[in-house]
Amino acid sequence: MKFTKMQGIGNDYVYVNCFEENVEDPARVAKLVSERHFGIGSDGLILICPSDVADCRMRMFNEDGSEGSMCGNGIRCVGKYAYDHGIVDKPQISVETLGGIKYLDMQVEDGKVKTVKVDMGVPQLTSELPEKIQVEGKTLEFTGIDVGNPHAVYYVDNVDGLDLEKIGPAFEMHERFPDRVNSEFIRVIDRKHLQMRVWERGSGETWACGTGATASAVASMMLGLVDDTVEVQLIGGNLEITWDRESGHVYMTGPAVEVFSGEIDLTQYNGREV
Ligand SMILES: N[C@@H](CCC[C@H](N)C(=O)O)C(=O)O
């Protein structure tokens, strides 16, 4: 299978051009390629496929093989791949996802895409603002936001001090979220800056989450804690989020980077069963 490794502020996926390749069992392939010691190493797998309703279609699979409905960092890389590799010949494109059709506006420098602005659509509040929840005996508050996939946003004093490997699963699998949930832990730095770490459904802690940054920004805007444009600072870098309250649409802007390309034999997988 031919692949390209790409990353958006450190949220890295293995991308396959399904205009040319056929991936038979993507859930299994996602688990194989994501493995950081025995595989290529990534937060999951993203397929770039033909679409009947948009310029192309994104299918994204988490590290555990589950299919996600949207991926903010992933969709910027899909746009870059599609433009840089000639699948599309224009910098404004539409991408079909399970979370709806998204519109991308790509900034091109020296013939290659550097940054991408994504119209993430109209976010939906999925909880009270905020809602109380009991996690491992502690009462906390979260704000639930759907931006094509589900998020729960929590405010904490010390983002760096959280042991997410330990506490993350209890948030992801909480009975309040029967489909599991992506959980964001954020601190308001000031009215224009948020700090965030994320525990992603199906992938654990990642260095960034575009949909999570969007949900965190919108939750903070709804609560009146920040202005309608904020920079969200994540482990792997920063994203700019702007909410246009008039139209309801929220926009995410950030970089997309191609790391390397290669070929992997999925029948000979280092002798390891996955
Ligand atoms: N990293 C992503 C989100 C990936 C999907 C998520 N784990 C889910 O299952 O909903 C992003 O950048 O948005």
TrEMBL record:
**Where are the catalytic residues?**
C71, C209
The pathway where this protein functions is:
Amino-acid biosynthesis; L-lysine biosynthesis via DAP pathway; DL-2,6-diaminopimelate from LL-2,6-diaminopimelate: step 1/1
Provide the catalytic activity annotation.
(2S,6S)-2,6-diaminopimelate = meso-2,6-diaminopimelate
Q: Does the keyword Isomerase apply?
A: yes
Q: Which domain of life, per UniProt? A: Bacteria
Q: Where is this site: Could be important to modulate the pK values of the two catalytic cysteine residues?
A: H151, E200
Report keywords, A-Z: Amino-acid biosynthesis, Cytoplasm, Isomerase, Lysine biosynthesis
Q: Which InterPro entries match?
A: DAP_epimerase_AS, DAP_epimerase_DapF
The subcellular location is: Cytoplasm
Annotated substrate binding lies at: N11, N62, G72, N73, N149, N182, E200, R201, G210, T211
Q: What does this protein do?
A: Catalyzes the stereoinversion of LL-2,6-diaminopimelate (L,L-DAP) to meso-diaminopimelate (meso-DAP), a precursor of L-lysine and an essential component of the bacterial peptidoglycan.
Question: What name does UniProt use for this protein?
Answer: Diaminopimelate epimerase
Species: Ventrimonas faecis
Source lineage: Bacteria, Bacillati, Bacillota, Clostridia, Lachnospirales
